[in-house]
Amino acid sequence: MAVSVRSSAPPWAYSGLIWNFAVRDVKSRFKGAILGWAWSLIVPIATVVIYSLVFSVIFRTTPPPMANGKPGNYALWLLTGLVVWTGFSSTITTGVVSLLASGPLLQKIYFPSYAPVIGSVLSSLMQTGIELSIVLVILLAVGNVGLSWLFIVFWAALFVVFVGSVTYILAALNVSFRDLSYLITVVLQLLFFLTPVIYPITLAPESWHGIPVRAILELNPLAQFIESFRSLAYAAVVPGPATWGALLIWTLVCLGLATLTFDRRGRDIGEQV
Q1: CA-based end-to-end distance of the chain
Q2: What would the DSSP string read from start to end of the chain?
Q3: What are the sequence ranges of the domains in the chain?
Q4: Rounded distance, CA 122 to CA 23, Å?
Q5: How does pLDDT run across 1-22, given as a tens digit for each residue?
Q6: Is the Cβ–Cβ distance between 30 and 39 less than 8 Å?
Q7: Which residues pair with 211 in a beta bridge?
């Protein structure tokens, strides 16, 4: 029988518990794998190599020029977007089932339902942070660096809150609608091609049968996060106030929806799992 308790303690009061969930997820992520954490680098590198061959050799996609004045490098351009996308998709995929996975524990003792979700988000984004750091090291090694990198910290803060909020909303809904986790897999596959990860957004037609395709793609929050990171890291250009404002609005809206979801569905969720 689930324990129904409503706690008024602030989120930071559960920081130790959240960290324990994150550490548990990190330890279990590559448990039993011979190469362990090396897979977190092998997979994105292999993906970059495959897409680079397909789009820079076969389809001959030309990326924007680099900040150091050299011609565009498709592999580096792709990597700056692919790492952000992978961080989002892997966090959503693992986080959406985190509440159900913690069901037996939630039925025995009370802790806020966001604790295991945030723990899962942190474990996934720690891996993403390592990958982003490697990308920056590679860009630094080829001399593609600028003062715009200082703003990556602010970008990362917004990205973490945005992804964490979306993950909690989906994880809470997945408790009641168990098919959601399967549907998310399909949606992520579609969203990947609707987001300018492997192609510059300028290649998208401005309109198609009267539909403003490019404008719609630009409204995609993931497109805005990816494009802004590429601007900071690859082009070494600080996005304008409109871009930062859009990122902030998306983040606050998702955070507000996550808070509303917790208030309406997440406080006594132990009874449902």
Answers
A1: 10
A2: ----------GGGGHHHHHHHHHHHHHHHTTT-SSGGGHHHHHHHHHHHHHHIIIIIIS-PPPPPPTTSSPP-HHHHHHHHHHHHHHHHHHHHHHTTHHHHTHHHHTTS---THHHHHHHHHHHHHHHHHHHHHHHHHHHHTT---GGGGGHHHHHHHHHHHHHHHHHHHHHHHHH-TTHHHHHHHHHHHHHHTTTTSS-GGGS-S-BTTB-HHHHHHH-HHHHHHHHHHHHHTS--PPPHHHHHHHHHHHHHHHHHHHHHIIIIITTGGGT-
A3: 12-23+34-271
A4: 9
A5: 444 445 556 666 677 777 777 7
A6: yes
A7: 208
- Euclidean distance between CA atoms 248 and 157, whole angstroms: 10
The rounded distance, in Å, linking the Cα atoms of 36 and 40 is: 8
Token pair listed for 115: 């604790």
Q: Is residue 99 within 8 Å of 117, Cβ to Cβ?
A: yes
pTM: 0.86
Q: 256-267, pLDDT tens digit by residue?
A: 999 999 888 766
Per-residue confidence (pLDDT) for residue 3, from 0 to 100? 42
pLDDT at 45 over 80: no
Average the pLDDT over 209-222 and give the result: 89
**AA identity, residue 166:** V
